[in-house]
Amino acid sequence: MTTDAQALPDGAVAAGDETAVVQPVALEDATRWRILFYLAALILIGGFGAPQGGLIDIPISFFLKNKLHLDAPQVALFRLASGVPLYGSFLFGFVRDTWNPFGMRDRGYLVIFGVVCSAIYVAFAFSSVSYWTLLAAVVVLTCAYSFVSSASNGLTATLGQQHVMSGQVSTVFNVVASVPIIAALVAGGYLSDFLEHSHQGMRILFLTGAVVMAMLALYGLWRPKVVYDNVHAELGPKSHPLHDIARLFGYWPIYPALLIWLLWNFAPGAATPLQFFLQNELHAPDSVYSNWNAIFAASFLPTFFLYGWLCTRYPLRPLLFWGAVVAVPQMVPLLFIHTPSQALIAAFPIGLMGGVCSAAYTDLLIRSCPRGLQGTILMFSVSLYWVASRFGDILGTWLYARFHGFTVCVIAITIVYALILPALWLVPRRLTATADGEAPEGGFATQ
């Protein structure tokens, strides 16, 4: 393997001026697969311990509704307030890109904040359970976990960029990150019953989170050479945070990628209005909405895997275009259902239609990162996801109430998704002209 920068220990920087230029280099298959398996395990463990997802989020929602007797607006307000740290996720990503704890880089974040998250879970496990303690627990945990997420996302994007495997990394990321979500949706009813009938339910839930995050910290202590000897520092000794901020905002390729990501996650009507549509218009029980989301999320998996195969054979540009074309009418099948069972059947093709484009948009985000700021951009996409989904839900709820039906929400979602097609023309061709394993001239990042 040859690069313009030597493989360096965790946190070391290459000699030179402000940045070290690392030319993308494809790895041997055996090395690449070992790296992908390492990342898969990292993402999976972290996903199960996430306070705003994994095994934690849905049980807390059921607890608020069934044990604390909160109504829908109060639960929504809890979600809005507890998600405040997520709206500023890019700040945690920027810290990851500019601070090197104990000279361990990403491993340092995994160890330190894995332990911190575990300790916080334990502390709240033995606290009295109320609305305010739960809110404090989720907010504090989300802040600490965001450093873990920044390290995981930053490492994933860096390896994808530096070794021209952004599409395969995107596939692994999307597939593995879906597993805790699907597991929580499938187990939602059981967890709800457990929390409702057990006096120790919330304590056991938090202690489970503590164990998961302790496992993540131990995972961070492990330093497989095949992974970390293939990560190259891209910020030199003269790099300064203010300079990096200016470089970030002056870097054009990130804007089309983030715009496309924003449009894809806006989806006015895909959350609360869909729930009301299933329950009020189709007279479905509560379980149907949870099952619909589980089928929907699981149905992305086949086309995620398809993208992992396609990205090594075709350039990103046609995959972006055709993936977007297929996804534009994604929600249209909901216009033709009249029973809860039909809704569950429709969830499968609806999910299938979104897999290729979703993986392609993540691929584009990775390719669009400026040097040394991969954590910032990937966490900025997290911020956009939560802002877009929350405000999209507000708009969709207003449309549903104003026009007294779900049809207007499907039309709104379709229009928003259609706007992605012209946005694709803003993406620099250099970033999308190659398949995985092929390095564009000059590399992905130009500054």
Task: Write out key terms for the chains shown.
Growth Hormone, Chain: A; 447 residues; mainly alpha; 0% strand
Structure write-up:
This protein is an all-alpha fold and 447 residues long. The chain has 2 domains: 23-230, Growth Hormone, Chain: A; 241-427, Up-down Bundle (Growth Hormone, Chain: A). It has 21 helices and no strands. The protein is globular, with a radius of gyration of 22 Å. The model is unreliable at 1-9 and 11-19 (pLDDT under 50).
Q: What's the quaternary structure here?
A: single chain
Large-scale geometry: globular
Q: State the helicity in percent bands.
A: over 70%
Average the pLDDT over all residues and give the rounded result.
87
State the secondary-structure class. mainly alpha
String of helices and strands: HHHHHHHHHHHHHHHHHHHHH
Cα distance spanning the termini = 23 Å
Main sheet record: none
Radius of gyration: 22 Å
- The stretches of 5 or more residues where confidence is low (pLDDT under 50) are 1-9, 11-19
Q: What's the tally of helices?
A: 21
Q: What is the β-strand count? A: 0
The tally of domains stands at: 2
Present the secondary structure layout:
Layout: H1 29-49, H2 57-66, H3 72-82, H4 84-87, H5 89-98, H6 106-125, H7 131-162, H8 166-186, H9 188-197, H10 201-221, H11 225-228, H12 241-249, H13 254-266, H14 272-281, H15 286-310, H16 316-327, H17 340-368, H18 374-403, H19 407-418, H20 420-424, H21 429-432
Helix pairs in contact: 1-7, 1-8, 1-10, 2-9, 5-7, 5-18, 6-7, 6-10, 7-8, 7-18, 8-15, 8-17, 13-17, 13-18, 15-17, 16-17, 18-19
